[in-house]
Specification:
The protein has 499 residues and is of the alpha+beta class. The protein has 3 domains: 10-144, Methyltransferase, Cobalt-precorrin-4 Transmethylase, Domain 2, CATH 3.30.950; 149-403, 2-Layer Sandwich (Heat Shock Protein 90), CATH 3.30.565; 411-498, Arc Repressor Mutant, subunit A, CATH 1.10.10.10. The protein is 35% helix and 19% strand. The protein has helices at residues 10-18, 34-45, 69-79, 134-144, 166-178, 190-196, 207-213, 250-264, 286-299, 346-354, 364-375, 405-409, 412-418, 420-429, 436-442, 450-461, 484-498, and strands at 25-28, 49-54, 82-83, 89-96, 99-107, 116-117, 122-125, 128-131, 200-201, 204-205, 225-231, 240-247, 268-270, 279-281, 309-313, 317-323, 381-385, 388-394, 465-467, 480-482. Strands 12-11-15-16-18-17 form a 6-stranded mixed beta sheet, with helices on one face. α13 crosses α14 (420-429) and α13 (412-418) crosses α16. The longest helix has 15 residues, at 250-264. 33% of the residues are buried.
C-alpha cells in the first residue's frame, strides 16, 4: 500500500507540489472541485494510493483557500460515498493568514478493490483520471474474491490420485525435506503430501494439484500447454526451424522448456582472464532463463482455456511469454527494482518454493538482471501485450560464422561433440550400458523426454552409441552402450576441454 507523505509545513508542501501531478498526486484549485477530486481519490484507491491537494492550481501555484469546519465536514461526507467504505485521511497546511491547502489521502492495494464513488469506478492513467473500463472493473472484482476463491483452489472435477504423477509428488517431498521446508517424518502417502501442500481439501483435489502433477489434460484443461518454437530471422513470419506444442504439468513444463533452450541456443566458448581452461557458455545465462520460466509457470493466469506459456527463439533474441497480467499494484518498471512478491497462484508457487526452486521475497527478477550483467548480457525487457506478459532477452542466437539456422542445428555428429546433453549422455554411457529410463535418471531427468529421445536417435545415427539388443530395438530389456567411435569422440572432447 502506498500514499504520498503528508507535508508538515508550507516548505514541505512546496517540495511535494514540485513533483508535479502523476499516478499518486492530483491538484485541485479548491473544494469547488470536490466531486472531481473524489473521483481521483477513487482512482487512487483502485491503484497504488495517493493524495489530492485542494488549493493548488494545475500549474503548481499554491494559492490555498479559506477552510472552515464546514469545509472539512463536506469533505468527510463526500468520502462517505466511497463503496466499499474506506478511510480517507484529511489534513490541512497553513499557507498564510486565512488560507490553507487541504490534503486528502487514501491507501492503495486494499483487498476491497474495486472501489466506486457515487456508483462509478475510476482509474488513474499517468496524471489523468478516467472511468474504469468494464473489463478492468470485472478483473478487480475477481481479485477481490481471490483470497478464498481462486481458480487454483477450486475442485478439479473427476480428478483422482491415480491421475497424478506419483513420482513427481514424491520428488517434491524429497526436495522439500532437503531444503528443510517440510519435516523428514512427513508421510510418503501422496494424499497426505497433497494435504500438506494445500492441494487436497477435505479429500477433494484442487485444480492446482492437476496443474502441478497432472498426467492428462485434454479435453478439459487445454491451458496446461507449452509452445516452443525456433524461427529463422527476427520475425514470427520467418521460416520455422523447430516447433513443438506439449500438454504437461508445471514441473514438466520447466524441465522441457529448459531442455529446449539448451538444445536450441548455440553453445560458445571463452577463456576467462587468468584461466587455462575453456569455459563453455550459452549467449544467455541458464539461471536467468530458468527463473523467468519458473515465474511464467507459477504466476500465469490459468483460468482461460486458451492461455499458455511460450518460448520463442529468434536469431537475435529469446522471448518467454505467459498468459496473464501483473498483479494490481505491481508495475513493469518495478520488476527491474525493489518490489514485493504477490503470487497470483500461491498454492502453485508454494509447491515450487518447497522444492527450493524459488524464493518468496519478490527478488527473482532482480537476480535475473544481476545474472545477465555478470554474464555480459543485456538485462531482459518486460512488457505486456494482448493479455500476455513477455520477457525478452536480446542476444545472438546464431553461432559465429553461421548464416543458416537450420544448418547450424543439423549435423548430428556436430551436436554430439558440442551439444551439452549429447556429451552428458556419452559420459554416462562410458561407465555402463543403461536403459532409457535409467539413463534419464542418471541425467537428472524425470523421464525419457522428447529432447533425450532425439539425442539418442542422433547418437545412434552417428554410431556413437548402439543398442545392446540390435535385433529387438523395442524390447523392454533394451539398453544403450558406448561404441568405440563414441569413446573416441568423448576422449577428443575431454582433450579439448583440457587445452
Amino acid at each position: 500500500m502506498k500514499t504520498v507523505g503528508i507535508p508538515a509545513n508550507a516548505k514541505h508542501l512546496a517540495a511535494l507540489v514540485k513533483q508535479g501531478e502523476g499516478t499518486t498526486l492530483e491538484f485541485k484549485r479548491s473544494t469547488g472541485e470536490l466531486k472531481q477530486g473524489m473521483q481521483t481519490l477513487c482512482a487512487f484507491l483502485n491503484g497504488s494510493g495517493g493524495t489530492a491537494l485542494f488549493g493548488v492550481r494545475p500549474d503548481g501555484a499554491i494559492k490555498g483557500q479559506a477552510v472552515s469546519d464546514q469545509t472539512l465536514r463536506d469533505i468527510a461526507q463526500a468520502a462517505d460515498r466511497f463503496e466499499p467504505p474506506t478511510h480517507a485521511s484529511i489534513h490541512k497546511v497553513k499557507i498564510k493568514m486565512g488560507r490553507d491547502v487541504v490534503l486528502v489521502s487514501v491507501e492503495g492495494g486494499q483487498a476491497d478493490r474495486p472501489f466506486t464513488y457515487e456508483g462509478r469506478a475510476y482509474e488513474r492513467v499517468a496524471s489523468t483520471t478516467r472511468r474504469m473500463p468494464q473489463a478492468g472493473y470485472e478483473r478487480l472484482l475477481v481479485e477481490r474474491g481471490h483470497a478464498k476463491r481462486r481458480w487454483e483452489n477450486l475442485p478439479a472435477d473427476g480428478l483422482a490420485l491415480k491421475d497424478l504423477d506419483r513420482r513427481e509428488i514424491l520428488r517434491t517431498r524429497e526436495l522439500a525435506i532437503q531444503q528443510n521446508r517440510i519435516t523428514p517424518d512427513t508421510s510418503r502417502d501422496i494424499g497426505e503430501i497433497l494435504d500438506r501442500l494445500g492441494l487436497r481439501v477435505n479429500g477433494v483435489l484442487t485444480q492446482a494439484a492437476l496443474v502441478l502433477y497432472g498426467k492428462r489434460f485434454l479435453p478439459d484443461y487445454p491451458q496446461c500447454l507449452i509452445k516452443m518454437g525456433r524461427f529463422r530471422g527476427t520475425e514470427i513470419t520467418g521460416e520455422i526451424v523447430d516447433n513443438r506444442q506439449e500438454y504437461m504439468n508445471a514441473f514438466a513444463v520447466v524441465h522441457e522448456g529448459m531442455e529446449f533452450l539448451r538444445r536450441t541456443m548455440p553453445l560458445g566458448a571463452r577463456f576467462p582472464t587468468g584461466q587455462i581452461f575453456r569455459e563453455d557458455r550459452f549467449p544467455i545465462p541458464l539461471d536467468a532463463l530458468r527463473e523467468i520460466l519458473l515465474n511464467a509457470v507459477m504466476h500465469r493466469d490459468y483460468s482461460h482455456y486458451s492461455g499458455h506459456v511460450a518460448i520463442v527463439v529468434f536469431d537475435d533474441r529469446v522471448e518467454i511469454r505467459s498468459y496473464g497480467r501483473l498483479p494490481n499494484g505491481v508495475t513493469l518498471k518495478q520488476l527491474s527494482g525493489k518490489h514485493v512478491s504477490k503470487p497470483t497462484n500461491p498454492l502453485i508457487a508454494g509447491a515450487f518454493h518447497r522444492t527450493g526452486a524459488v524464493e518468496v521475497w519478490g527478488q527473482g527478477t532482480n537476480r535475473v538482471i544481476a545474472a545477465c550483467k555478470r554474464h555480459g548480457t543485456v538485462p531482459p525487457k518486460f512488457e505486456e501485450l494482448q493479455g500476455f506478459l513477455i520477457v525478452t532477452f536480446k542476444a545472438r542466437m546464431v553461432a559465429r560464422g553461421e548464416t543458416d539456422v537450420a544448418g547450424a542445428q543439423s549435423g548430428a555428429q556436430s551436436r554430439a561433440q558440442s551439444g551439452a546433453q549429447s556429451i552428458r549422455v556419452l559420459g554416462v554411457l562410458s561407465r555402463d550400458a543403461l536403459s532409457a529410463r535409467a539413463l534419464a535418471e542418471a541425467l537428472g531427468l524425470r523421464s525419457k523426454t522428447g529432447a533425450l529421445k532425439r539425442t539418442l536417435n542422433e547418437l545412434l545415427g552417428e554410431e556413437l552409441i548402439e543398442y545392446t539388443l540390435p535385433d529387438k530395438p523395442n524390447s523392454r530389456l533394451q539398453k544403450y552402450r558406448l561404441t568405440v567411435k563414441g569413446q573416441k569422440a568423448l576422449e577428443k572432447r575431454g582433450g579439448e576441454d583440457r587445452k
